[in-house]
Amino acid sequence: MTTTRKAQLVVFAAALALGMASAVAEAKEKVKVGFIGPLSGGTSSNGLGGRNSADLAVTLRNADPNAKYEYELTVLDDECKPDKGVQAATKMAADKDVIAAATHYCSAVAIATVDVYNRFGLPVVVWGAVLPDITYGNDYKEVHRVNGTMINQNETAAKFMTGLGYKTWAVIHDTTDYGKGHNKYFSQFVTENGGKILGTFGVTADQQDFTAELTKIKSLKPEVLYFGGLTPIGVRIRAQMEKLGLEAQFEGTSGIVSDTFIEGAAGLAEGVVAFREGAPTEKLPGGMYFTEQYGKKGYSEPAEAYGAFAFAAMNLILDTIEAQGPNRKKVRAALNGVQGHDSIVGEISFDDHGQNTVALITKYVIQDGKWTLWEDSEYASGKRKLKGQ
Amino acid sequence: MNRGHASRANLMPGTLGIAAATAFLILFLSVESQAGTAVLLLGGAVFVLGAARFGGIARMRQSFTGNEGAMNLVVVAAALLLTGFFYDDHFTLLLVATVMIYMVAALGLTVQFGYAGVLNFAGAAFFGIGCYTAAVLTRNTALPHVLVLLAGGVMAALIGALLLLPVLRTRGHYSAVVTIAFTLLFKTFLEVNDTLGGPQGLRVDGMNLFGWRFNDNIEIGETLELSFFANYVVGSLILLALAFAFVRRLERSWTGLNMDAVRLDETAAACFGYNISRWKITAFTVGNFLAGLAGAIYAMMLGFIAPTNFTFGDSLILVSIVLLGGIGNPWGIAVATTIVIVLPEKLQIIQEYRFLLYASMVILILLFRPLGLLPRPLRSYVPGWQPK
Amino acid sequence: MDVGLFSQYVMNGLMLGMMYALVAVGFTLFFGVLDVINFSHGDVLMVGSFTGLATYLGLDALGVVWPVFQLTAVLAAATLAMALLGAAIARYLVLPLKSAPALNTLLITLMLGTVLREGIRLFYPEGANPKPFPALLPTDATALGNFNLRTDNLIMLLAGLVVIVGVHLLINRTKLGLAIRAVAQDEETAKTMGINFNLVVLVTFAIGSALAAFAGIMNGLYYNETNFGIGLLLGVIGFSSAIIGGLGNIYGAIIGGFLFAALQTVGAVALPFASAYKDVFAFGVVILIMAWRPTGLISEKVSERV
Question: Looking at the 3D structure of chain B, how many domains does it have?
């Protein structure tokens, strides 16, 4: 809301003798920044973790006496639905006091909202969505992304799995752009590396029963079941595989790298492999600092796998505002030129599409109820074995 | 419009009521703090209850029924005033336009089950057919956009015709299941079908009526720049006014009378020689046309549509608008749509708790006002006539 | 298709059908006594499933690990709690709206469903996440070619059958059942015959909701997972099943439930298009059935009094 509007409103309210205006004197200028993520619905655990992480970045900055501004975080819910996301993005972008925002975990939402940010000129940094087209499908200078895309993720995944000696796959993917993208890139890379896809099944993102698909897959006898989708249906598929006696190795994408998956699949989670872009945060000094501060703040939800990215995205935004002042155009220009910016997820450098070029992919396997780095796991050392090995 | 019966004296309560409502809406849309929203909600509720207690509402109602033409103009003026106040506030104007568009769709449902008693739980699906028609036509053809709007409505009516046989043959809860099945089928179909964008949805071009480009901000002089959503507010206001006038006329006409008869007692109506099927088909088609029309302009305004806009839940929102407002009363729809669309949006501040709160509020309203907020008044054959 | 694979599909379909049938019977009971649709039914099922889960976790924390006792306690807690919830819904939401249009009951119960769903999501510890449901039945399985015959599935099918037969006996052989049928046939006459109408309605809602709780536990045991969103679709499918069977008739509801499951399975397996179309197919057939038999497969005997 603009200041003129506020003044107008005050006059209006006074005229009606219904409202009172109070001016609060502040030492520092207040600056608004935004966060959008899925706070309700099936993927809300990731959204809430991201929100807390962004909130942590803002709180830490406000506690810093050297900060030039006092930051206020505006949070909106996109429900992981494209239409709600467009509404939330419009609301956020139309508020001229919001200088920049960290936005979206769900790819389906992020790809829908880029036009809005461009139309209103709000610089954003995507903190979780992995679909390539979000940055590469347009020339919008407003859109940046700190996490990597699914292309690199699937290239690594295909090479890694074929390297372990697996030959045949069945694919289940959700039919959003997220799942379809994963299916497309994974199938492409796995075929290039000599693997074979025996069957591909698209499922809706809120499906409960997968027995029909899994029974079909069972008769195809694949060595690996590749799943391109998010945690909620990932948990269901893993549980129902067991019910049908489908003995294939379960391979997921970044969409299931969350504590919720382990909690939901319980004992069946053991030995599941998945991949996530970016350096392993738990290994970097910044990552440990983040985990420690997050714990101190006592949030009721865990940070989840993309919390570190939300924290890094928000910190990048705050750093840029500190340097450029609260001006959308200047912040946008400065974000476009980010090179070698230090962050808790490794160095951030944006290419000409605003995509972070750090293409490191971390491989995870679930061992004893924890997402463990593949290299550190007993599976890599040969002490335990993945299915079919 | 029956001005002869209107007297100057009873114009006042209605005008005052509209003025108070407009002022309240302006304040409510402006306030951003949680406490402010709560205070306004409480204050508004107390005010309305107080007005009802001291007969203010009844007087307003008289003033409305007595001076319909004049009051309609007052309401349009109030809507324009509201738009003017938020002239550069994109989001608020988007909200205002959304409310108006949903009103058009809800008017369609009113014709269906308010007048003819045809249940439709697929409102969002027909709305969605309008949206998708607009998306396909604006992106792939050079059809003038005024025709695209009409095409949205026609398409919804045509696809609705596929359901006519089961809808005509079934009654009550049985016909509910036909439309429920259709709305679920429609959404799943959109999700698994790639040619219409799949679950990802489609982009839609902005509206362009005879060179009036809706997606450009309006610049007046050097300093004043209006949000482009103001275009859509005006556009949907025109559409709403037309739909409203049409539905009111329909209600008054012998067509409306026939539909009422079909709804109230099918058997009796059939005995008196009414053609039940004919009126049900008319109502179902007209209603779907309005929903599709609304969908087409909505898609062009939003610029992006996806299957998740058109779930069973969204159909229920449309139904709850009609029920909350009071079945068959177009003015009730105005009040209910505002509540149903604006409230969850304003409650964004309480984020994850807003659906819980919203659902609880609807339950309370239904318990204490089972006939809706503004029940449909008895058919008045003489404008301004009061029962003694 | 080999025999093993075929048997597996049949088994999957039977399990689904049993759950749908249990939900549909609830819908049909409510409709029978009060001519209303209680759309919160699916979410009552979900709450029942979570009640069972919470009971299990509570027992686990107390150190009770004897599976038979655990299972009994989980079932008892869930069915009792949901019976109470069902009666409360009837008492405070459905009966007060008796004179209002039927649509209002539908809307108010739908909103209640939202309240229940959101309530679990927000107030159950981390309720937004999918929860693992414990395997309380023997999990051993016999592999017959492509057919994985599991003991727990067999037990659940049998248990479902027993429950359905139980409901049948209750309705047709007991005094209570007689009262329920009397109210269903004619409220006024039933009242003049000295039947406590309100009590019969409350009891019927309690029975129906307890059935939903049973289905909820079954759903949890079958999928080994439960989440706050399972109720919405199960509710709609249960309602559709009750309708295609013919409202007010429990055999119709059972047939409807199994028919819907069969349609989904056929849609996913035997038809040439992608398995994701199975719901499009199933609901499309539902619409056709309604056009063919407008009052369901086993239709109510209605004679219009003018």
Answer: 1
